[in-house]
Amino acid sequence: MNVDSEISPGARTADEADEATAAANVQTLFNSIAPSYDKLNHLLSFGLDRRWWRATARSFRDVLGRPEARVLDICCGTGDLTSALLAERPTQAEPVTGLDFSAEMLSRARTKYGADNAVWLEGDAMQLPFADNSLDLVTAAFGFRNLPNYANALQEIHRVLRPGGQIGILECNHPEGVRGVGYNIYLHHVLPLVGGIVSGQRAAYAYLPASIARFPRPAQMKAMLTVAGFAKPEWDGYFLHAAGLYRATKA
Known about the structure:
251 residues, Rossmann fold, 7-stranded mixed β-sheet, 47% helix, disordered N terminus
């Protein structure tokens, strides 16, 4: 299967010709919506986002339960998945690192979870500031699809994971068939309208449904994980397959 010929290479806010420009535009966009980000996430997911973060964290209890395990949550936004991961950690465990390239998002993460055993780091998920084979778990929740090159991002995660380390990507999906018809109406009409009104950032909430539509479907994403060097990729669909968790292990 020629993965590259069948999917979008990565996020684009418009018709950016290069990845650096696309990444800069996405960064600007998320800084602009940071003040209303949490409120709209809860509203537009009908409150299910909290359940999905907890379910994702529970699925990695085996590694999170080891005090010495090193855990990184990329594209951490305002820190909700990072906090859910911490809830599964024993006392006196190594801290969980939350990394994001949006200073505004990280500011809110520090405010919300400043007392938790977390390290908040402003950085680029495409160039992780970690040594080869140094981490036990890397996660992302609803942020991976905003990276400018999905295949390269998976390779970078593979680089920093130890052999046997795990990857977990909680991400939106576009359902197929009959359920996809109703979801398509919600995604392209309701979500941009409500998001634009509440946030005052109509362009941002036009980008978000477009980013979901262009993101790889589960079969394609699992193929990309295999190409990147991960073993036994799986996908667990949530809520009519409108979202789901990808997980795999570094071979």
